[in-house]
Write a structure and sequence with these properties.
It contains 14 helices and 20 strands. It is of the alpha+beta class. The radius of gyration is 27 Å and the shape is elongated.
C-alpha cells in the first residue's frame, strides 16, 4: 500500500479540522468589520510584518530570553499594533505551547463581577485559525461559579463585543501559530479576595510551556474618559507619563498589595486594572517556578504626534523573563536606552536654564532602579571638552546617578565656567554607564578598558575610548592619567599607587 502524500495528508487534516470546528463550535473574528484591524488576510499579514520590523529595531530587547509573560496594549492595530508585536514576538514558539490571555471586560460595565471563558473549540481571525483550550475552560466553569461561559449571558455574551482579547489573536497566530489559547475576560468589579481565588483556579493550568498575555492599556485621560487628575495644559503629556510610571511601579515590583494601594490612592483610569492584579496574584504564587524580572519594552501614547489633544491613552509593553546573569552593567532594552538619552538631554536643559518643567517624565523601569556608576562628557561645537563628571560608586539608582552627573558636568566642573543656554544647541553630551571597578596591576592594564588611578588622596579616571581618541600608547595613557590626577611620580611611592579597571556602555 502506498503511503499518503504530503498534499493528501494535509487535505485530510484540513477537512478534519473543519469538521471538528463545525461540530465543536468555531468563533469568528468580529473586530475587522469594526475597523480594529485589517479584514483582508494579505493586508493583515503585511501590517503585522511592518509592526514586527519596527519592533525589532526601536523596541528590541537584547539578551532577554525565555519570556514567560507579556503585558501589551489593546487599541486598534494602527494605534498600538507595534507595541503588541514588540511584546508577543518575544515569546518562544518552540517552547510555548499554551497561552492564557487575561483581558478586561469593558462591555459589561458596571455589572462586571465575573470571569468569562468561551466553550468554542477554535477562533478564526483573517490570518488563520487558533485552537482554544476547550477542556480547561470547561473545568474552570465546573470548579467555581465565578467563572462563567460568555454564552450564559445570551445576547450580552462579552466575546461578541469585547475587543481587548481578540485584538491580540492575529499576533498570536503570527508568532505562535500552533499554540492552544485559553481566552479569559476578567470583570472589572472583582474584589481582592475574588482575584486571589481566581488566580488559584488559573494557576493549575500553568506550566513551563505556558505563556501569559495580559491585555491592558494604561492611563485613559481627558474628555473621552471623564478623567482629569490634572489640567489639560502644555504639561499634560508629561504628567500622563508620570502617572503611568506611578501605576507601573507595583507591576515592576510584582506586588499585588502595592498595586491595589496605588490604584486606591491615584484612582488611575486603567482599563486592565483587574487583569493586571490577577497577573500579579499569579506571580505571587510563583506559577512559573522561577524568578522573573520585568523588562520595559515600549512606552507611547495615542497622541505622541500631537501638540494639543482632548483625550489620550498611554500604551506600554512589559516582558517578564529570568534575570540576566553576569551583568556588570544594567542591560537596557532599546526603548530604555532611547528614553534615557531623551531624559538626559532634558536634564541638561533644566540644569542650564533652571526650569524644572523642561525635564521629560521617565518610566523608571527595574533596569533604571539598579545602582550603577555613570559618567557624563560635554563637548562644544568644535569637539573640545566643555565639562565632565562621573562616579564609579554604585550608591544611587542609574537614572539618579546620571541626572546628578549631568548637573555636575554642566555647572560644577572647576576647570570651566558653567554652561550657558546659548551653548546648548551646539553642545554634545556623551553618557556612559560604568561597571564596578576591579583592582588590577599596572603590568596587566590594557588599552580598551576604563582605568582609574589612586594615590593617597588623589584620583583620576579615563573612559575606555580616551586612549583611542588620542592615539596613545599604554605608557602615554599612564603618563596622562598621572597628570590628570595631579600625581607626581617623583614623590609618590610606587606602592601607594593603585589601579582599577572597568567596562562601560554608552547610551
Amino acid at each position: 500500500m502506498k503511503g499518503l502524500s504530503f498534499n493528501n495528508l494535509s487535505s485530510i487534516l484540513s477537512t478534519a479540522v473543519l469538521f471538528f470546528s463545525l461540530y465543536a463550535g468555531e468563533r469568528q473574528a468580529h473586530l475587522p468589520q469594526k475597523g480594529w484591524y485589517a479584514a483582508d488576510q494579505e493586508k493583515l499579514i503585511t501590517n503585522i510584518l511592518e509592526y514586527d520590523r519596527k519592533a525589532r529595531g526601536r523596541y528590541a530587547a537584547p539578551g532577554v530570553s525565555d519570556v514567560q509573560a507579556v503585558i501589551v496594549s489593546h487599541a486598534g492595530h494602527s494605534y498600538s499594533g507595534v507595541y503588541a508585536a514588540a511584546g508577543i514576538r518575544l515569546l518562544d514558539s518552540k517552547k510555548i505551547k499554551k497561552i492564557i490571555v487575561l483581558a478586561p471586560c469593558h462591555s459589561l460595565l458596571p455589572l462586571n463581577t465575573a470571569v468569562f471563558v468561551t466553550d468554542e473549540a477554535s477562533y478564526t481571525v483573517p490570518n488563520g485559525t487558533l485552537l482554544l483550550n476547550q477542556a480547561a475552560a470547561k473545568k474552570l466553569v465546573a470548579t467555581d461559579t465565578i467563572v462563567q461561559y460568555g454564552k450564559s449571558l445570551g445576547v450580552k455574551n462579552p466575546f461578541d463585543f469585547e475587543h481587548s482579547m481578540e485584538i491580540q489573536l492575529p499576533f498570536i497566530k503570527h508568532y505562535l501559530p500552533d499554540a492552544v489559547v485559553l481566552p479569559i475576560l476578567v470583570g472589572s468589579q472583582l474584589s481582592t479576595k475574588e482575584i486571589r481565588a481566581v488566580s488559584q483556579l488559573i494557576a493549575d493550568y500553568i506550566d513551563d510551556q505556558t505563556a501569559l498575555i495580559v491585555s491592558s492599556d494604561w492611563i485613559h485621560y481627558g474628555k473621552d474618559y471623564s478623567f482629569y487628575p490634572f489640567l489639560n495644559d502644555q504639561h499634560a503629556f508629561e504628567k500622563i507619563c508620570a502617572l503611568t510610571n506611578t501605576v507601573m511601579q507595583p507591576i515592576f515590583n510584582q506586588s499585588l498589595d502595592e498595586c491595589i494601594q496605588v490604584f486606591d490612592a491615584t484612582h488611575a483610569n486603567v482599563c486592565g486594572r483587574v487583569p493586571l492584579q490577577l497577573f500579579l496574584a499569579l506571580l505571587e504564587k510563583n506559577v512559573f517556578k522561577k524568578k522573573l524580572s520585568a523588562y520595559l519594552i515600549a512606552y507611547a501614547t495615542s497622541v505622541d504626534d500631537k501638540v494639543t489633544f482632548d483625550s489620550a491613552v498611554s500604551y506600554a509593553t512589559v516582558a517578564f523573563a529570568p534575570p540576566l546573569l553576569n551583568q556588570s552593567i544594567p542591560s537596557l532594552t532599546n526603548y530604555e536606552r532611547l528614553s534615557l538619552k531623551t531624559y538626559a538631554r532634558s536634564v541638561l536643559r533644566w540644569a542650564v536654564e533652571g526650569n524644572c518643567e523642561n525635564v521629560k517624565s521617565l518610566i523608571i523601569s527595574p533596569a533604571f532602579q539598579k545602582k550603577c556608576g555613570t559618567f557624563v562628557t560635554l563637548t562644544d561645537g568644535n569637539g573640545k571638552l566643555r565639562g565632565c563628571k562621573g562616579t564609579t560608586i554604585e550608591d544611587k539608582p542609574l537614572w539618579r546617578s546620571l541626572q546628578d552627573n549631568i548637573v555636575q558636568a554642566a555647572l560644577h566642573d572647576a576647570r570651566f565656567s558653567p554652561v550657558t543656554s546659548k551653548e546648548l544647541p551646539d553642545l554634545s553630551m556623551k553618557c556612559s554607564l560604568l561597571s564596578q571597578p576591579q583592582p588590577i596591576e599596572l603590568e596587566a592594564l590594557a588599552l580598551g578598558d576604563g582605568i582609574i588611578v589612586t594615590a593617597v588622596s588623589k584620583t583620576a579616571l579615563f573612559l575606555p575610548e580616551v586612549a583611542r581618541e588620542h592615539n596613545w600608547t599604554k605608557d602615554q595613557m599612564i603618563v596622562e592619567l598621572y597628570k590628570k590626577a595631579g600625581i607626581d611620580v617623583r614623590v609618590v611611592k610606587k606602592s601607594q599607587v593603585k589601579f582599577q579597571t572597568f567596562k562601560t556602555i554608552q547610551l
